[in-house]
Write a structure and sequence with these properties.
mainly alpha
């Protein structure tokens, strides 16, 4: 496969930061949410993570590696992701009224959510090319979306289900998340990383 297809599939399915590391699950585990928050967090997070991954790769390959500052990869990538995430939140606040009205209760959390997902970019191996960096950013966003949206719908549905008292709320959501993680284990062996 191309130099971008393997990282895309690997980060979306195999090295899913939501399931492997538990990053960015708050929009899905919130029982009061009706799934809109998880959907918007997934859709709007994709450009943020792709841009952060591309800028992080450029900065790493042009500045950090040539200077021997490889240890600064974590703070630089997190800083870039936080800067892009907060800029996106400010841009959304200045956007059209209909979009602002739909997202207003959740905008403050989106910047934090995307910054936390940026940690997943740091924990991935350093990409070899810009195409691979873009694929890692997109794959991370797709993988989180693949987990967040169905899990948020499931948690909302479990709110009306007849669940035993000790399992109501977060415990049954975590059991459901564990079952989703087991389902994603079926993708192992699909791509050699």
């Amino acid at each position: 496969m191309g130099d971008w297809m393997t990282p895309l599939i690997a980060t979306a399915l195999l090295q899913n930061v939501a399931l492997n590391l538990g990053l960015g699950l708050s929009p899905a585990l919130d029982a009061t949410s009706n799934g809109d928050r998880a959907l918007w967090a997934s859709l709007l997070g994709a450009p943020v993570l792709v841009l952060a991954s591309a800028l992080g790769w450029l900065l790493e390959s042009l500045v950090l590696r040539p200077q021997g500052w490889d240890a600064l990869r974590l703070p630089v990538l997190l800083g870039i992701t936080a800067l892009i995430a907060q800029s996106a939140v400010l841009g959304l606040r200045a956007g059209p009224y209909a979009l602002r009205a739909a997202l207003n209760p959740h905008l403050a959390l989106f910047g934090v959510h995307w910054t936390i997902l940026g940690l997943g970019l740091v924990l991935m191996p350093a990409p070899a090319s810009l195409g691979a960096a873009l694929a890692i950013g997109l794959g991370t966003a797709l993988g989180v979306g693949l987990v967040l949206v169905p899990l948020a719908a499931l948690v909302a549905r479990l709110g009306f289900a007849d669940v035993p008292a000790p399992f109501r709320g977060l415990p049954i959501a975590l059991v459901s998340l564990a079952l989703a993680a087991l389902a994603f284990l079926g993708f192992n062996g699909l791509v050699k990383v």
